[in-house]
Design a protein that fits this description.
Blueprint lengths: L2 E6 L5 E5 H9 L4 E2 H4 L9 H8 L6 E7 L2 E8 L10 H83 L1
Antiparallel strand pairs: 1-2, 3-4, 4-5
C-alpha cells in the first residue's frame, strides 16, 4: 500500500501510514494489541501495515489519537515488564489520556495557526509600511519637482510681466 502520511517519533523513528490503515483507524479507534493483530479477523486488510508501525518502536500496543476525523498522532507502547496484557482499567486510562492528548494537540495546533497568522500579518504590515514609505518618498519627490516647475513658471511669468510693464511705462 502507498503511504499517505508519515508520522515521526521523538527518537527519530517513523511510521508510514497507508490510506487503508488511516481509514481503518477511523472505524476502529481503540487500542491495537500486536498479539491480537496476528490472528483476529478485523485486522485482515491492515495487518501488515499495523505490524510495520509497531516493529520500529518495538511496540506491542498502538492507540490512534484523533482530532475530529483527522488522525493526528499514534501512541505506541512497549510491552509491560511483567509481559501480561493491559488490564481493562489500563485501557480505559489510556483512552482518557489519548482524549486529553487530542485536546492538547488540537489547542497546540490552533495556537501554532494563530502564531503563524500573527507572523504573516506582521510581515504584511511591515511590507505595507515599506510600500507606503516608498510611495510617500516618490510623491514627495514628484511634488518637489512640480513646485520647482511651478516656481520657474511663476518666475518666468513674473519676468515677462515685469518686462511688459516696463515696456508699457517706457512707451
Amino acid at each position: 500500500s502507498v503511504p499517505l502520511s508519515h508520522y515521526r517519533s521523538p527518537d527519530g523513528g517513523h511510521c508510514d501510514l497507508s490510506a487503508a490503515l488511516i481509514t481503518w483507524f477511523r472505524t476502529h479507534r481503540g487500542l491495537v494489541d500486536r498479539d491480537i493483530v496476528e490472528t483476529a479477523p478485523q485486522y485482515v486488510g491492515v495487518r501488515q501495515d499495523i505490524q510495520s508501525c509497531l516493529a520500529p518502536a518495538e511496540a506491542r500496543y498502538m492507540l490512534p489519537i484523533f482530532q475530529d476525523e483527522n488522525l493526528i498522532a499514534l501512541l505506541r507502547l512497549s510491552e509491560k515488564r511483567n509481559l501480561r496484557p493491559l488490564s481493562s482499567n489500563a485501557v480505559k486510562f489510556l483512552s482518557r489520556i489519548t482524549n486529553a492528548s487530542a485536546i492538547a494537540f488540537s489547542n497546540s495546533l490552533l495556537f501554532q495557526d494563530i502564531s503563524n497568522l500573527k507572523e504573516d500579518l506582521q510581515r504584511q504590515a511591515d511590507s505595507l509600511a515599506r510600500e507606503i514609505g516608498e510611495r510617500q518618498e516618490v510623491e514627495t519627490t514628484q511634488l518637489r519637482h512640480e513646485e520647482e516647475r511651478f516656481a520657474r513658471t511663476l518666475n518666468s511669468g513674473t519676468d515677462v510681466a515685469q518686462k511688459e510693464l516696463e515696456r508699457i511705462k517706457s512707451s
